[in-house]
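G., the chain you wanted modeled:
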Amino acid sequence: MSDFIHLHNHSDYSLLDSCCPVDDLVQAAEQHQMKALALTDYGNLFGAAQFFSAAKAKNIKPIIGMEAYLAPDRLEKSKLIYHIVLFAKDQQGYQNLVALTSQSYMDGFYYKPRIDKTLLRAHAAGLIGTSACLKGEIPQRLMHGQYEEAKALALEYLEIFQGDFYLEIQRHGLALDAVVNDGMQRLSRELNIPMIATNDVHYREKADATAHEILLCIQAGKTITDVTRPKYPGDTFYFRSPAEMKNLFKDVPSAIENTLALAEKISFKMEFGKSQLPVFGLPEGFTSENEYLAHLANAGLRKKMGETISEDAQKRLDYELAMIAKMGFPGYFLIVQDFINASRQMGVAVGPGRGSAAGSLVSYAIGITDVDPMRYQLLFERFLNPERVSMPDIDIDFDDRNRGKAIEYVQQKYGTDHVAQIITFGTMAARGVIRDVARALTIPLSEADRIAKMIPKRLDITLEKAVAEVPEMKALETHEDERMRSLINVSRSLEGLIRQPGVHAAGVVITPKPMRELVPIYKSAKDEISTQFDKDWVEKIGLLKMDFLGLATLTILEDAKKLIRQNYNVDVDFDRIPLDDKKTFDLFWRGETTGIFQFESQGMTEYMKQLKPTTIDDLIAMNALYRPGPMEFIPQYIARKNGKEPVDCFHSNLEPYLKSTYGVIVYQEQVMQVAQELAGFSLGKADVVRRIMSKKKPDELAKIKPEWVDGAVARGYKKELAEKIFEILVPFSNYAFNKSHSAAYAIVAYQTAYLKAHYPGEFMAAVLTSEMANTDRIAVLIHACRDMGVEVLPPDVNESMAEFYVKANNIRFGLGAVKNVGLGAIESILQAREKSGRFKSVFDLAERADLRLVNKKVLESLIQAGACDSFTGHRAQMFLAIEKALSYGQKMQQQANSDQVDIFGQAVQSESRVDIAAIGLPEAPRWTHAEMLQKEKELLGFYASGHPLDRYRAEIEAFSTYHFDDEHELREGEPIRLGGMIAEMRQIFDKKGNPMAFVTLETFGGKMESVVFASVMKECQPMLRKDHVVMLTGKVSIRNEAPSIICDGIYPIGETYQRIRSRVQIHIAQDILQNGILDNLTALLQKAQSANPATSCEVVLCLDFPEKNIIAHYKVSRYKITPTPDILQQIQLLIGQGKIVVKALA
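Predicted structure as tokens:
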């Protein structure tokens, strides 16, 4: 064993200051055979639990410490701080360390989390202190030649720590090191204070010094060429070996020996796995949590199933209650049911369930979930396994608007000091670290972005994998530019390091005693209180962690139900809707899944059209199958469902478990049920076996297979069948999904589909309201509304509310979705409208609204969005009148506020009121249609009064091979031709310096991305301009389910007719023939004849004889025309809209 211990070490929890993860520190200590190791991150204990666990796993004694920031007065805003290192000697010391770091964030934060000596004295018991690095208070005095002051400070610290104080000496080759160390040795001799040798470790190997320099640049937002950047001198802040340290301090061997002596004083042990649940207050008449839970469960089940509970249900309920009691978790269930039921009473929508908790009948009975586990064959043991005891995990979905009310209830019930959110740590992921390092190395942003985008978008991607998979990334390792080589090498070193803390979106901790007695506390810049340990370590130290998730779909459902109640006086009760509603399933058959929870992706929509679901079980199965891995079994599931492939359940005894999914193993619960039926395992053991199978570890599989086979044979099954099914289940176990979660979410999906099928306007209005901040999504939803025959009317300050709503089967656009118009402004407008009626003009609006909220930007946006079109005048006039209107409004409001009341109570008007009607709008030319559309799209996300491509609709619809409302799903490599407008164009340069571009093409119904490589760019560059209308050709590329186009050609839309053979089909009804319109049509066609054969189209008349159910086609060989927008418009005026179609013949 080593006779030296590193006591001053920083992990990457010293944010952007150390590039040495906790596990690297522990591995280094193990490598050098150190019997103990300390962690001393700056100002926090973020990594304490992880470090303690990792060190213990390697038989290394963990020493929990912290390098604290010490201020003269933590409550004063001063940047003067010193460093001091603190170690937890025992349990009391750890508690004090937790108190110090927590308080430093709560009231001492000013650039850094700071403590002061007053706080330190109050929490010094059980702590060991050291003088720290050159930024310590004593070293600072010695550096400035103030020995006596340093001596006084050393005596003060001796007194504070009751003798447990050490002087640190470090040697990094600096002149100041020698000055400080000489002073330290003198203090040690004169005051008999022991010294310890430390190295202030910030990276593991000497070679990591360069990466550490770049990390410091990232922290400071500076570049490597900036002389003002922070920098550690030299390359010596690494995990030096014991031999190096002994040699470095051979003149003071006691400083080496004392590291062992200090470690010997440490007795603190962190406890893991011991539950620390809050106490649930029992109502009068109950003496135990088990008794009260049983009472609630039995009463709740009777309420849900009727007074006569089936024998199977009662038996299962009693079994679950017994298991919960045995495992010691009745209080957990009582706490959860309490805040869920309280939330419902407060009007907070709660989801039917989430995760494996939906498999518990007790959860269903007491209101935690709303999914009957017996109806859906869900298993309690998948949730709470008596053969693998662990804390239950119940995650709850609340409507995202009211989620905060549920958290507030818990805070009021248990106390604000017993409830906190949970910290998260953002890491330097592959793409992000490339951009960070490139910035520090002065590599241009465009180049950094280009390289970052080479990295595949996958959850499991790392730079190592990217270099192996992408040749361009591999080439960076040998690039001629040294910065490029450094980019890839340094990025590799920094990848995965912690970048910044955050607050978990859902995690909440409830503790039995004040939080900071059990876990250190962190306070974010937004004043959010959270634990310093992340969710995994919070659970491992035994605290009750739950996810309070905000689910937007629940808000949508509540909003839709509210609109339905207003419009139809109907209260939709989801407990009473039929689960076999044909109208609902027809939506899935037709692929009308926009807005339907979990089922609206393009791939899922296509599968649902093929599947033609008829039961809720189909939705549950597809929800489970549509994810990486099991997705490959969807075609088999569909084929079996539709009778195109025989159903095989392997054995008749397995049919009860596999029949609902046509013999395809979809769920983890099915794996467990097969194990129980075939091998005779208990469901608890079956869950353990399922987990072993999913991990696919050969040694573990080899242990359980004989037991599986023997059990099956003992139960009368053939050995060959048992072995066959075992081998089938191993890969399936990895893919199989939790049915409890899938069932709960499929129910929510069905509820959304039911509302969409029966109340389409109200449902889509609610969906639009939920997406008000996302203009791209608004455009997609409005397109879907129009496909459903629901019109979305533009915003109107005289009609709109803040949200979208339905009137006369049309949806009115919500003012809250107009950009730049805040909620305060909207409330002011609505209040004024409610009080005094409709607005007549922009002057009237300015007079009656609160101009502190309805300012110039708001008025500009409302006018440009068309929300003031019901006023006098056109948009250009109103826009020019804004300044005058605001001036008028301010004057009128000041006048109203200055009105006096005389001594007889009579109002005294300070000035006669100006007549609004007498105020004229300025003369101004109307905005062009294109200008109006551009502003509408910018502010609303869609074109409210037309579409800029309307002029080219015939060409785009005729010659595009794909439309966004098409039935077919785009496939990888499929040829495509798409007409539209270039909405965005970004040019970059490839690695050879040649220009290439990323183009966003907007067309009717949506947008599609396209990449134009350098080889194509040469020919296409003149066409690549924003707002140009073009026809783009290429091949489809599918990434993350999103189709894009690898472009091989672009040309102006006007050249379409000469590039693609086409025909004009004119549909003529019988009554038109009788009205003599044919002569006028002939004249038009004659006038439109094309002199250029290259651009001419043949004309076909389609004569409709409805009484004979015949459409006769006649080719008009005399006339070949060029179907310009003007010609097509003239024909449509003659025979009616929608009666003329241009079709591509190639």
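Confidence is low (pLDDT under 50) at residues 900-905, 907-912.

Shout if anything looks off.
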